[in-house]
Amino acid sequence: MVDIVNIRAHAKDLLEKGTVKMVLGYQRGTAGVLAEPAFITDAGQADHLVWDPTCVQNLALYLVNEKKAQSHQRDPDTRPIAIIAKGCDSRAVAVLLQERHFERKDVHVIGVSCGTLGVVDKNKLSKALNGRVATKVEPHGTDSFKVTTAEGFVDVAAADVLADRCLECACAYPAMHDVVFGEKHEDRGYPARFTALGQLEAKSEDERWAYWEGHFNRCLRCYACRSVCPMCYCPECVVDSIELMVDPTTSADEKANRIKWIERSAVASENSMYHLVRAIHLAGRCIDCAECERVCPVDIPIRMLNNKLEKEAKDMFGYEPGLDPELPSLVASFRDDDPNSFIR
Amino acid sequence: MTENVYLPKLARIASIKDEVVGARAIKTFQVEFPDGDMFEHECGQCAMISVFGKGEMMISIASSPLVKDYKQFSIMRVGKVTTAIHAMKVGDVIGVRGPYGNKFPVNDWKGKNLVFIGGGCGLAPIWPIIQTAVAQRSDFANITVFYGGRSSRDIMYRAELEKLRGVADVHLSVDQAEEGWEGYCGFVPANVMSTGVAPDNAIAITCGPPIMIKYVIQNLKGLGFADEQIYTTIENKMKCGIGKCGRCNVGKDYVCVSGPVYSWAQLKDLPQEY
Amino acid sequence: MASTPTQTPKDPSVFEPRIVAFLCKWCSSAGSDLAGVSRMQYPSNAVPITVMCSGSVSPVYILSAFNKGADGVLVSGCHPGDCHYLKGNYFARRKIFLVQKLLSFIGIEKDRFRMSWVSAAEGAKFAQVVEEFVRDIRTLGPQRKLKAKR
Amino acid sequence: MSSILKKTDLGAWAAALEAEVFAPALADGVWAYQPVAPGANDGGVALTHPNTARPPKNFAFPQREVLYTFEQLKGQAPKLTETLPNPAPVVVMGVRPCDGRGAPRNDMVFTGAFDDPYYQSRRAKTAYVGLACNTPPSPNCFCKAVGGSPSSKEGLDVQLTDLGDRYHVVAVTPRGEELIEAGGKLFAEAGAADEKESQRLHSEAAKCEQRTFGDLAAAAPALKKNFDSEMWQSLAKACIGCGICTFLCPTCHCFDISDEVTGQSPMRGERVRTWDNCQFPDFTMHSSGHNPRETLGARLRQRVNHKFLYFVENNGTQQCTGCGRCISFCPVGIDIVAVLDRMIQA
Amino acid sequence: MTARRTGVFVCHCGTNIAATVDVKRVAVEMGQEEGVVFSKDYVYMCSDPGQSSVIKAIQDNQLDGVVISCCTPTLHEKTFRDVSTEAGLNPFRCEIANIREQCAWVHSNRDEATEKALKITTSAIRRVQNNEALTPIGVPVTRRAMVIGGGIAGIQASLDLANAGLDVVLVEKQPTLGGHMLQLSETFPTLDCSQCILSPKMVEVSKNKKIKLLTDAEVTEVSGFVGNFKVKVKQKAQYVDPELCKLCDDCTHVCPVVVPNEYDQGLTGRRAIFIPYAQAIPASFNLDEKSCLGLNPVVCGKCADVCEAQAINYDVKPKTYEEDVGAIVVATGFDLYGLENMGEYGMGKYEDVLDGLAFERLCSASGATGGHVLRPSDHKEPKEVVFIQCAGSRDPENHCAYCSKICCMYTAKHAMLYKHHVPDGQAYIFYIDIRSGGKGYEEFVQRGMEKDGTVYLRGRVSKVFEKDGKIKVMGVDTLAGRTIEIDADMVVLALAMQPSKGTADVAKTLKIGRDKDGFLAEAHPKLRPVESVTAGIFLAGAAQGPKDIPETVCQASAAAAKVIQLLSKEQLEHSPAVANVRLSHCTGCEMCVDACPYEAISLTGGGKAYVNEVLCEGCGTCQATCLRAAIDVKNITQLQIFDMINASIGG
Ligand SMILES: Cc1cc2nc3c(=O)[nH]c(=O)nc-3n(C[C@H](O)[C@H](O)[C@H](O)COP(=O)(O)OP(=O)(O)OC[C@H]3O[C@@H](n4cnc5c(N)ncnc54)[C@H](O)[C@@H]3O)c2cc1C
Ligand SMILES: Cc1cc2nc3c(=O)[nH]c(=O)nc-3n(C[C@H](O)[C@H](O)[C@H](O)COP(=O)(O)OP(=O)(O)OC[C@H]3O[C@@H](n4cnc5c(N)ncnc54)[C@H](O)[C@@H]3O)c2cc1C
Ligand code: SF4
Ligand code: SF4
Ligand code: SF4
Ligand code: SF4
Ligand code: SF4
Ligand code: SF4
Prior knowledge:
CATH topology of the largest domain in chain B: Rossmann fold
Oligomer: heteropentamer
Strand order of the largest sheet of chain E: 10-7-6-18-29
CATH architecture of the largest domain in chain E: 3-Layer(bba) Sandwich
Number of domains of chain B: 2
Helix content of chain B: 10-25%
Largest sheet of chain B: 7 strands, mixed
Structural class of chain E: alpha/beta
CATH class of the largest domain in chain B: Alpha Beta
Strand order of the largest sheet of chain B: 10-9-8-7-11-12-15
Strand content of chain B: 25-35%
CATH architecture of the largest domain in chain B: 3-Layer(aba) Sandwich
Largest sheet of chain E: 5 strands, parallel
Number of helices of chain E: 17
Distance between the termini of chain E: 26 Å
Number of strands of chain E: 34
Helix content of chain E: 25-40%
Radius of gyration of chain E: 31 Å
Largest interface: C-E, 57 and 55 residues
Radius of gyration of chain B: 18 Å
Distance between the termini of chain B: 35 Å
Order of helices and strands of chain B: EEEEEHEEHEHEEHEHEEEHEH
Structural class of chain B: alpha/beta
Number of helices of chain B: 7
Shape of chain B: globular
Strand content of chain E: 15-25%
Bound molecules: flavin-adenine dinucleotide, iron/sulfur cluster
């Protein structure tokens, strides 16, 4: 069991000593049951920190943003940032290290183990509560949650409300950390990795297209899936090629010669292009925090695309992202015996 | 149904003149409207110019409203559409819709001294007033023009400015000293200051890079100009030109409709979002 | 020897696929030249784009080709170990494998996207690869899934 | 005069309408306006939805609108072809009161000094059949705080009130009357009891607990006062700039116009208008790289100010109807109610 | 600014193109393309009048880009780029659209071929319109060369280079120069003594002041690029100082260790301190640290005790040399296909089944048996010897697919030598074909058959096994169509030649390619047979493919000539079509760094990718790897490819 009191004490200590400039964590929000990001810079505020199954976000994103902000500051505070990281989040930090986005010394990872549980899926929770509104979710034993609603307490089986990714999680214990709270549980007793993916793979080609076409059709191209992803930190995304320029020094020629890989219209063809490019660009980098899928306002199962490539990379190339920051990236490496038979 | 505001008129490029060459090239285009169905405009107004296949952009109409056979645009090459139009030839056809925006209250300025202060590409929006004032010279008192570029090669409308010397007081400047340059060396605001202009019965109209405008206004205030005596234009990114696309607003004002012309009296109360 | 050119107009009922073929300069493009020198005949549907190395073919190119309306995309490079640039084709193989899996996963027919190894000596193989590819795509019909609908 | 429609007759009514009818349905886990299949019987339409993920604004203002097409042979002048839509009539059923109030606000934008022919030709063909909220469909509802109510008829053509097995139906506009007329015998005249019950539900709903930020009238002055406040930065600290909040908002209307080239020889393409978003960094970025709203804070301020200050100054009313979508769907919990609260209190 | 005044020139190539492609239509339609201001067709674009017309058109129309729609760029890209230069247009503003090999010659329907030609040409137009004007990158040159491998190939190359006045570093892995040739007894087709012709050359090397000889040494690291390589060479500890060693041989007498002598193919033994051959260069004894007992902790030390010259020192350390050179010749030679692979012929199982080199050692006067052909098992003279050709060669299923080229000749030689040593013996040769191309080679083989009575049996050996002190060889004579059984006293296998051990590592260190069989790959099989794919690195000898001594020497001299040519320039020109980083987009993720096959990219202090343009070969791997489109190869940028994709799809 993770006791928030310990985390708060640790955060307070870090801030008091000034060893970190900020603690990235979670706090209660006003918008709903999910916790919201907290940016604690003052030891006095450490008590705002919460830790419970509503801490769904992958805060590694804000490490990226902070780094970007720093590059614009004249005299940046270069002390490390402490981040509260679940298992998946810690892998995101590892990928960012692998991509030299920042250095190990720039981050202090406060790992928290999800134990046998994980975080809730908002939609599943509201379904399980049958319309009632949750105001608080706490772990209850090793396989259920105690949910508080206006009408009282409800006990909900974890398997019913855990986020899909948590159900298949193989890294509930943060591999990379400076300190860690909570224990490691080898067998969590949920379905194996890629179970959901397997069901989709088993469909026929036409069924799969029908499935994806329907989903892609619906995409608003709000890019929330991209904005929330810690790995989507490119200064200019292929979809920005429409207009965004990244730098006041960008020349007229560069702007005039921008490639329009994707048109702005949110139609199926352009949306597919967006999602396919994104999936390919995340191959070997996505660590399945599933933030992209969670934030999608129209529930597009984006995670499956990433999952597919993750699985192929694992099966065919023995590559798993976010485990070793020293390894070259999936597509920046190869083995002589990579699969060859698909080539004619 | 009323006329479709998004549909541009087709216009033929009648002449192209290189004003400035190099990295920040400026070209002046005069365009004609084939069936003579050209719109009327007022000083300070703009038009949306289309290069089909590339996009649209908002450009000040740089010819005087008194000119009835063409419209003039002076365009700096900075990005996609501007690059495309710079590559066009005489005879090529572009789209033009407009006019958009408010206008300089030139009629209210009859009998006054006009002081124009421009820098870089910022001569374009005020050029129509200069042209109008020159054409109706007797309606106005003194006309003074301050204009500067980074170097003498960056000075647009050079020949026209020289010609103007007969009827107006023209002060050209370059940012840095340069061989063969006989005018002022230094920034435009400093030129204004060192030359000195009297605020009495005067209207100052300034346009240019934001930083220049800032100092010009500061200096004009120093010279005793009242907020109401200072006019400028602001440029924000625009897509529709008709106050709907939602990006050019400064506070409640959509610059494409309520601007781009502002007196400092109006502008100083608006949020600094331009 | 070259057969005498025919003037027969195209039969509009036959579907003529539009194929983009990325050929590496040193092996596959050279292989296609050899096919030419040997006057081997193959369908004209594949339009070659010669790139320096199969390793330079970004997945985005492939996706874009489909998006712009290609019915099929071919990437061809040197055999493993033969890359003019030592190992560009190994990188290509990995990337292209992933693209192929992804395309097939979302339901794009597997046969629309092909990779082949064609050496400078394999003119006949080049002709055969194109021949087969065009044949396979003919049976699949036009690619409408990813094509921009306009 | 009001009438009664049995719930089981809703489908028949839809079928009787000479229009494309849309109603909320759950598809792929998302509540969205879906076409009601012609001939859908009682089972086909049932208004049991919470608020849809996407508001019904797209019926008059679709995410993508082709303004015109162009084609140009080399050496010749381009040819433009106007593509004004001429849609079949559309009836949107089950519109919640907050979304209903979105329509007149969008009308304000797309009419005025410059009429927008695309919006207008679609809008003229669109009718909204609303559904009063007996209970708030979302914990983030705050229609009352922005001058609306769970039974507001503003912007609707017909209002339905759920009486259990039947709807109490009120025509709000002449178009609404036509729609009811088209239903013919499906509608029975409402009895006094029904009307009373309907009223009771409305006043019951008006008492429901909702989120609020205090005095609506205080919002605009507070925002004006706090324009330069540091609070904007800290409030927006977690914002990821995604733009969900505006894409899903029933009243957000910002758009982009761009050229999409579809062929090279001859060069041809479409000029399209697409939804755009004040939360995107490139939204206001000039070619020079200068960006008047560079920070997330400035962009959050724009969104809130637009709705609660500028729109009020220009149109005399707020541009927010309290649907709560931007709160519920914000990935990081940025909460316009809380923001207003803070601003008013500051 | 992008090119705006493009010219298009469509070639008929006589009727080669025009017969299938409607060239006139191509010229007319291309004239309609955006930015094309001039377009024409002509019967032979590459002819003098054709070229002049291009020059004239460029000048008259101020063209800033031209597309020649003709044959493959391999043939005339250079021609037309030179033409452009002559017309005052940057040569990189000229592109070739291949409508002959890739179009006219492979299609027969005129409409279809024309459509395709249109697309290919449009594609080239779009590309050229975004081509930058480039100038080749100048690189200064270090006028010094390295030769790796001291076999006959390396020796010849070193001598040629030194005699041309260049400084040479010769690196040899073994303690002595000479390579395999030093193992041979007599050489075909003249049967002159191998050591007699080789030793003088070895001595010449050791005497030549221009040659720095490093034996016992291997290359461990190569950085830099053509004209400016930095090579690290690691030399094993030289426990015996060659300068001091007097070759007295006192040491071997006291050494208690005996190990098989690899220089005699294991037919004899040697001590831990030994000299590989009497003719070894450097002329010195060597201490084999693997078998010596005296090293660390000192348990033996006998040899040092007896060495009067005090040449032995157990404490010396390996040395690393750093050499700056402008070019490298790789001559790392061959090894025989491993015995262990030939189990079917009893190799490694029966003592009297030998490989060719062992047989050479049996024949050699300096060899194991003092020049007598004796069976290793019982030191008796073999009376019936079976030679099996193609042992491991030409057998794609089980062994090597290729022909080792020299085995026919040396087997004929072996049979002959055998007959000279054992006049009453009988030699049988199993063969598939006899390949005896070469001056005097066929005559040599014939002489063996006729004069020395060698029996040639065409067919494969199916089984080899020991029975009653004999080695039974079962085979089929496919010409006579009968099975054959021979009770042989000795079997000699003409094992396949394969790249020497460690070739893979050398190739990796040097970043040069290997072919499918593992031999070092030449840049072009016909036209650039001595160049590797990496500029400045050349190949010689059996490392590049099986060959005999004359061919090896030829190639060695050719490689030397190439190096001399290269290093005769003050400056080298490197292609400017290299990768280019868009700093605004680069996030410093290092993916390109990992992917670049030439290690041309590194990260700057500012965390941005930096391309060493001289190392970059322009392959574009980085371009496809970078997720952020931050790196583009000049003149084949993503934008250009995008435009080309559109053009290729048409519409
Ligand atoms: C009222 C007004 C008057 C102007 N007058 C002139 C003038 O007389 N001469 C001149 O050279 N320039 C003028 N500009 C600036 C001109 O509009 C931009 O330089 C131009 O839009 C850049 O287009 P681009 O496609 O080349 O650049 P890109 O960077 O490729 O821009 C893409 C798109 O963004 C929009 N955009 C980008 N920056 C601006 C901007 N500053 N203003 C409006 N839209 C923008 C346009 O829609 C453009 O098509 C004026 C701008 C405004 C608002
Ligand atoms: C049984 C047999 C009989 C033959 N008879 C004849 C004949 O009669 N006539 C004829 O013309 N040819 C004959 N040949 C062929 C002849 O041996 C070769 O053509 C010749 O030896 C090739 O020379 P080379 O220098 O390329 O290779 P090698 O002789 O193999 O020399 C390569 C040298 O490089 C060194 N080396 C290897 N790796 C490294 C490294 N990493 N670093 C430094 N040094 C390294 C090796 O130690 C060796 O000294 C015969 C071959 C065989 C097997
Ligand atoms: S979050 Fe959902 S709707 Fe938004 S761009 Fe991503 S997939 Fe599309
Ligand atoms: S792609 Fe989605 S699941 Fe993967 S790292 Fe990004 S946000 Fe997380
Ligand atoms: S406020 Fe929320 S929904 Fe809006 S842009 Fe920011 S993160 Fe996205
Ligand atoms: S601002 Fe938010 S609450 Fe208000 S109408 Fe828009 S989405 Fe609904
Ligand atoms: S791969 Fe791209 S972003 Fe990464 S270091 Fe290289 S150029 Fe920069
Ligand atoms: S193009 Fe890129 S990957 Fe290829 S050699 Fe150059 S830098 Fe290396």
